[in-house]
Amino acid sequence: xxxxxxxxxxxxxxxxxxxxxxxxxxxxxxxxxxxxxxxxxxxxxxxxxxxxxxxxxxxxxxxxxxxxxxxxxxxxxxxxxxxxxxxxxxxxxxxxxxxxxxxxxxxxxxxxxxxxxxxxxxxxxxxxxxxxxxxxxxxxxxxxxxxxxxxxxxxxxxxxxxxxxxxxxxxxxxxxxxxxxxxxxxxxxxxxxxxxxxxxxxxxxxxxxxxxxxxxxxxxxxxxxxxxxxxxxxxxxxxxxxxxxxxxxxxxxxxxxxxxxxxxxxxxxxxxxxxxxxxxxxxxxxxxxxxxxxxxxxxxxxxxxxxxxxxxxxxxxxxxxxxxxxxxxxxxxxxxxxxxxxxxxxxxxxxxxxxxxxxxxxxxxxxxxxxxxxxxx
Length: 377
Hints:
Elements (H helix, E strand, L loop, with lengths): L2 H11 L11 E2 L1 H5 L4 E3 L14 E11 L4 E11 L3 E10 L9 E6 L4 E2 L6 E3 L2 E5 L5 E6 L6 E8 L4 E3 L4 E4 L8 E19 L2 E4 L2 E10 L3 H4 L2 E8 L3 E9 L8 E9 L2 E6 L2 E10 L6 E13 L5 E9 L5 E4 L6 H11 L4 E16 L2 E15 L1
Main location: cytoplasm
Keywords: Cytoplasm
Pfam family, one: Svf1
């Protein structure tokens, strides 16, 4: 194989990584064995803005009182310390397959951070954290088709698994060459609007916020993802599962939390996501799940055992995103044929799904709104 083709393949799919094995990854679950989770402070929400290869995101997922579903997102991306780009994305989902999704993605210019790294700025765009660390404001006029003016206020504490929220990668884990970190606001209220060419969309309702850092090539850190954001009248349930590539032993990492107004009920790394039933996508043969099951387990602060289950049919996906859409066709075909890579993101939602909780001897069932996505390289 030509060296340029090897490098292209490595850049896209990470296939040149040696097999380091599971000893070259330290899951955040190791921290969570002694400290299941930590409540976030304002300092925990600072941008890392690394000078080396990374992808860092702040994403706000909205479920409105009117039943709309959307997210807005800032992406900071650095390639080998050579090129840094920042992007603002906004998406409003359509549950009617005959209507297009509202999708806006814009490369930002003149980007900078506040002195304390808690706020992000660019021309016609700002994402700011309040002084008391409880509220974000998101404003963007970078795309006149989706003018964003939103406010998100947390109504439960912020969360990270373990002490730091970090999974570490490297053959010397005291000096890791890569990291993965997630910090969440699992339960928030939202207000404001996105102005579209059809008029304003009111975003009064619930929100989930995620600050994620992949401090290495993203495709080297995780090969598969499954994500759940459940928002009910009383409870919010979040689960992020990722599986490392074989180079790191196909290690499974689960990060989950269940919260209600004013408190985290429990959280940590005890849980999983199960694709109960799958069906091959007719276009690409990817085994897209039709039925899903999310499990959480842990203990409350007062020591009560807690379990939670969310399961059922997903229905048809809302959207399928070809991650390699911008990659030249011959590279895409080569990667898929040579290593079986099928990099698509499937996004799902169910407006009525039941979360079954057991807190000590008490059993609770609550119906709510599920948004989820599934992704595999």
